[in-house]
Structure formats: structure tokens, C-alpha cells
Design a protein that fits this description.
Strand content: under 5%
Number of strands: 0
Number of helices: 6
Radius of gyration: 15 Å
Order of helices and strands: HHHHHH
Shape: globular
């Protein structure tokens, strides 16, 4: 894209990150995030949720939580989809207590489970 001087949009990068997440490739998802930020675009809640999903699909609950922390550092608030992705991540790892803790955090934040 950049060789042809076409500038990718946030939506383009989002699709690339989402594809990497579906494949469970944290490294590719992170690579596209860095490319996105390097092109001057800003990650939003959807972008961070996709990164959390990539970590979840790779079975890395700690990395999923790290992306949530980075999301909050960027002054973005998690939404129902973000929390559900975290719950799913820990559920797939068999960490029921962590999944329950995220559900509690979600409801405490005033977000209804979907």
C-alpha cells in the first residue's frame, strides 16, 4: 500500500489486526498496531479489543490483561465486548476465578453482560 503511495486507514489496519486475532497471531496483531501508530493513526477501543482477542486466542491471559491496561493508559474505556473477550480468554484457559473476576469488574463498572 505505501509503495503505491496509498495511505491505509484505521479501518484497514483494524481489519488486519482482526484477521491476525482470528488466527491467534499476537505478533502479527502487534505488528499491525505498530504500523498503524507509525502511520500517525490512533488505536481505539475496537483496536485494543482485537489485540485482547488475539492474546485470548493464543491462550495468553496475561497479555490480554496487558492490552487492557494499555487501553486504559490511552484514556479509553473498555466496553461490553472488551470485557466479554477477557472473560472468554480466561474461560478458555480454564481460569474460572479470573473469568468471574472480570465479570464482577464489568458489572461494577456499570456494564451489563451481553
Amino acid at each position: 500500500m505505501t509503495q503505491s503511495k496509498v495511505q491505509p486507514s484505521g479501518r484497514t489496519f483494524g481489519k488486519l489486526i482482526k484477521t491476525a486475532a482470528k488466527l491467534g497471531s499476537q505478533s502479527d496483531a502487534q505488528k499491525w498496531l505498530f504500523a498503524m501508530v507509525g502511520s500517525g493513526l490512533v488505536a481505539d477501543e475496537v483496536t485494543y479489543t482485537e489485540l485482547i482477542d488475539a492474546a485470548a486466542k493464543a491462550g495468553d491471559g496475561a497479555r490480554a490483561t496487558l492490552w487492557l491496561d494499555r487501553m486504559r493508559t490511552a484514556a479509553l474505556e473498555p466496553n461490553a465486548t472488551t470485557y466479554t473477550t477477557l472473560i472468554d480468554a480466561h474461560g478458555h484457559l480454564g481460569d474460572v476465578s479470573a473469568a468471574e473476576a472480570w465479570l464482577c469488574t464489568m458489572t461494577t463498572a456499570g456494564i451489563a453482560p451481553t
